[in-house]
User: Fold these one by one.
Assistant:
Number 1:
Amino acid sequence: MSRNPSSIIRRPLITEKSALQKELSNQVAFEVDRRANKIEIRRAVEAQFGVKVLGVRTANFRGKKVRYGRTMGRKSDWKRALVTLAPGERIEYFEGA
């Protein structure tokens, strides 16, 4: 199934851990569509940012329970993709973050 790359990649994850991984091992983290597989994620990153991807690791996260006043709610489930870039490749979106 061929989908639009912008519908697969939801947003970049910019945290202390992802900043450290970017510096040490040239990896960047994204929140991605829960139905996307590793091949689709690889193609979306290569198409959207014009970089060479060496590997993709994914993890599914369950939404946490939250309280809104008296009622209990739940945040939605989400998926993270940790993308390893080829040596020398950079994504300009993450520079200066």
Number 2:
Amino acid sequence: MERLESLRDDDPVIYGTIRGELNRRRTGLEMIPSENHCSHAVRQALGSILTDKYSEGYAGKRYYGGNEFVDVAERAAIERAKALFGVPHANVQPYSGSPANLAVYFALCKPGDVIMGQSLPDGGHLTHGWKASVTGQFFKSVQYHVRPDGYIDIDEVKKLAEENRPKLIWVGATAYPRGLPFEELGGIADSVGAYLAADISHVAGLIVGGVHRSPVPYAHIITTTTHKTLRGPRGALIMVTEKGMQKDPDLADKVDKAVFPGLQGGPHDHQTAAIAVALLEASRPEFKEYAAQIVKNAKALAAALTENGIRLVSGGTDNHLLLIDLTPFGKGNGVFVQEALDQVGITTNKNTIPNEPASPFYPSGIRLGTAAITTRGMREGEMKLIGRMFADVISEVKGYQLPEDKKQRGEYLNKFRAEISGSKRLAGIKGEVMALCSRFPVYPELEVE
């Protein structure tokens, strides 16, 4: 058992915070697609004494002494990443996904170069050139979109690439429920002489689990976070493929120099060790079963939502992620549904949808995923129940509509929150959620008074 008596005595505030968060997770459903429940072994490595070490440089080439054991952990993480994804080079030091993507820019581009990525409201990521990101301001960003059916518009990507001749094209997304078209975009990148960077942060676990195609034959560089479907700690990897090495034999060195000393100082050694543990876990046969169940659950949940009259962007999913389109109930209603779901113990996030009719802060979609609830052991039968609960929550709040006058929104939202806090229907759903969670315990090794 893992106990926290020392923390309880030394810092009651943080102890209470952890205790509260543990209770929230045990009694609710974590359904944000970016989140998961990592293993006890991963958390042990993450909370180890390796957090105290400083290790600027790379294994065997450090600027500090005393790194002989840290080097073992970093080399293990590197070799496991290379074997798991089938690549000749891996850098395991990026602090997180956005810094990893910035390192790719630093390795390949100069300010003002043309880059391409999927538009944020169409499911893309901030760091793929969106205007609010530094990547959309330091580079000439050309954004591509999805078709009316919710799938990436390959014809538009090809047209934009031919017209703009980008240095770098991104494929990867944060709210795209379909399989990523690595082969198609790889061909387009080759035709215009661009690098293709595949950001597989959301689907990395599905790729190593064999239920999503791999970008390795088609991309030059691959980035991924390690905490989503890969079920590791917060962190990231940058990998260079054989195709990337053929395009530029110095590409691996450029990536390493971009991470350090280009953008980062000393790596987080405890994080590196925890990534190594997660990669070992992902290499085992049971992880393939887990990845397959994530997708089965997502498809079952999509079917349940559709049967209950809920519209989904693209009509379904090929991965772990679903995007609910709330426009049949009005525009900008994501905030109401997200907060009502929070009220019953289901954690999701409001999200833009393609051709968003409202604003990014008050969007018209809800993004949800099945990775964390699959970790708890839930299967298709539970997805049918969860789908019905979603529909009931949406039905309870569908009459609310955000005022057009921005000055009235704060008061309206406060009134909404007060009303749903007294909803008997939502209280009943919360009881159902808690009963479901009690059948699928999480973090059983944690003992908190």
Number 3:
Amino acid sequence: MNKNILCAFCLAISSFLLIAQNDKGYNIGFKFDNITDKTLYIVGYYGNDYYLLDSAKVKKNKITFKSNENHLPTGFYQLANKKGDTYLEFIVEKSRYFTISTALKNPYFNAIINNSEENQIFFEYMKHQITNDGTLDPFVDNLLSMSGNTLLGVYLKTTRYKFEAPSFDEIKGEEAKSLRQYLYFKDHFFDNIDFSDPRILRMPIDYGVGYFFTEIVIKNVDSLRKETENFIHFTSQNQEVKNYFLRELYFIFHNGDPTFDIMLVYLYDNYCPGGECDWLEELLQRRFTRDYKRKSMLIPGKKVPFLEAVDIHGKKHSTENIPNKYIILWFWDPDCEDCLEQTPVLNDFYIVYKEMYDVEVFAVSITEDVERWDHFVQENHLEWVNVSYGMGDPNYSFVDYFDLLTTPAIYLIDKDHIIIERMFSLDDLHSFFEE
């Protein structure tokens, strides 16, 4: 980009920063040559979602979106057709009364923009990105330095720089160096995002929140709770931003991974006062409340009722009568491939460590196929407590109480029926006994 254009950008940015426009109402017009769509739509960004803001008929290649009362929030928008095809993107900040005339082909390169200097600058940026295949270079750095706290400036700051941890060459030992890099990366992951600015919600950006909590944060209760508390603190300077990201955390922790169940309980206990989660839609609030009631009974530290079910000989067995220090609850199904693979693995552990760890296994087959269940038990010499739904109803519905959406499912409880851990890999079994 040459110096003259840079200077022109400086003047344009300076001028539109000083212009104060009325937020109430808008009148935005577009003109395309030879347009065939009958109706076009303004589509807005809201976090990771889109929403339809307005629609207008095409009349003689012109489309006008207008309102005297409705508010048009500052943000990025798309002009799209009914199929969802995007004609172009534009921004709304200082001006809500402007026109853009252009061609269907290469609209950013053929545009004539009136009364929207921010879009003149934005279109120059889009032209550069298209011409350079999205390559980031000094042009964008210069534009960022000139844009300040404008909408485009905040967008560029958020997306321009890809965060990388320092090399920490001064630290000796690869393990220590890797740990320091990890901690630095984790602690600075959101440095380029200003969570106090609600405009970030109306930009096409990837906040990386899902990646952070599923891939970066160590999946144990202490780490998850600490990082969740820190993240909510980041977002708490603006209530709209906080509410949006509380909703995002709900979806992240409600992904079916039982590791996150305790965090769903945490969110509900701390951010749904009186059972009202005002940052969720009514339908989601009801679902969250229902799930909370179930999941809050199944997190470590909670006590479960004793389990009673029937073995192949019609004899009742109860966890209440198991004298061991620990009990492994193993819910499985002989028709489940994972169960057929993992049950013998658990049996190998049981044979070797039953006495050492003072542990018993209470294995419940939730299938009605008694013959297949008993055949597998006999074939694999399973000497622990074997009971089955097929031999009679248990003393309560284990499937409902333990939320058994899939099998196998595992719980480790102590002699008082307090949950120590749940839904973990068999590879981690030793760690619970060796702490």
